[in-house]
Amino acid sequence: PLFTPLLDHRLKKRNVIISFGGSYFLHQLINAIEYNIVLNTIALKNPDTMYALLQFYILSGCADNHALEWYQNYFTRFLYPRANMASQRISDFYVSFGSSNNRRAFFLKHIKYLVSATEDEYAILIDSTGCQNACKVPITKVSKHNNETNIEFRVVLVVQRATGLPVYYEIIPGNVVDSSTIARITRIMAQYGFRITQIFGDAGYSCPANLEKVILC
Question: Taking the model in full, what pTM does it have?
Answer without folding.
Answer: 0.76
